[in-house]
Amino acid sequence: MAVEAQTLNFAPTAVAHSDLISETWELYKRALLKLVRRPIVLYFSLLQPAIWLLLFGQMFNRMVDLPGAAGMFGTTNYMAFFAPGVIMMTMLFGAGQTGLGLIQDMDSGFLDKLLTTPINRFSILLGKMGGDLTRMVLQAGLILTMAVLAGVRIRTGLFGVIFILLISGLFGVSLAGINTIIALATRNTEATFLLGNFVNLPLMFMSTAMMPKAFLPDWMQNIVQINPITYGIEGMRGLITTGFDPNKVFPAIIILGTIALVSITGATLMFRSRVA
User: Fold this and answer.
1) For the chain, where are the alpha helices, taking DSSP H only?
2) I need a surface site. Which of 91, 164, 196, 201 has the fewest CB within 10 A?
3) CB 174 within 8 A of CB 260
4) pLDDT in tens, 172-187
5) Which residues neighbour 211 within 8 Å (Cβ) at sequence distance 6 or greater?
6) CA 90/CA 84 separation, integer angstroms
7) Best CA proximity match to 81, nearest among 239, 203, 254, 249
8) CA pseudo-torsion sign 49, 235, 208, 174
């Protein structure tokens, strides 16, 4: 009896690539769950900005009462002037967790496990940054709530709050992308933390976060004019103290949006080259 020979097909079979949106959503939920499971980190990340606002707001409040100071500050309430600066500082420190978290995923082996699957590499970054961005926007909302409870009046109301959160979110995405690039370049927690602060802190203090431009040294005023953080702060500050000024709000959105696009693109390209 003749036995028919069977031909075995050893050609590789294409694996259907899963959907980018669903992959990003699952990793986004993981980032949020990871944050919730560390309540002490969540607690202090939300409490610290409130302490900055109340402590420094009360400490420098009398400066507005100096002769002619109210015109330079644009308000008689220093806390209203300082609130946008606190939001930006919160984004600065909060975005650093994106790079540090990526290094933690590398060291724990979680990233290697993801890379063995047919997952879209871009979703890994999107999911993590999305979780961190959610935390930072919640922090910004908490700062605004604390400011209102402390007597600050947001002149543009809910409409202005939406734009404030938009500007702060764009700034947070920009910093998250930059910190991701630093983390991928160093692959070291300490180096990422130090380099991130080395880049971010001077930019923050050479802005109008704590003082109006007229109060700063002449050489620093030249830096303030080209500092992108200043545009974000001034855009938010106008929404709180004076009203909707398109000459302040739209430049802030355009500049920070452009930086966010460039930083995310750079982080994505660098991530793909590192995991290729």
Assistant:
1) 20-36, 39-59, 69-73, 78-108, 110-115, 121-149, 157-186, 189-205, 218-226, 228-241, 246-275
2) 201
3) yes
4) 899 888 888 888 888 8
5) none
6) 10
7) 239
8) positive
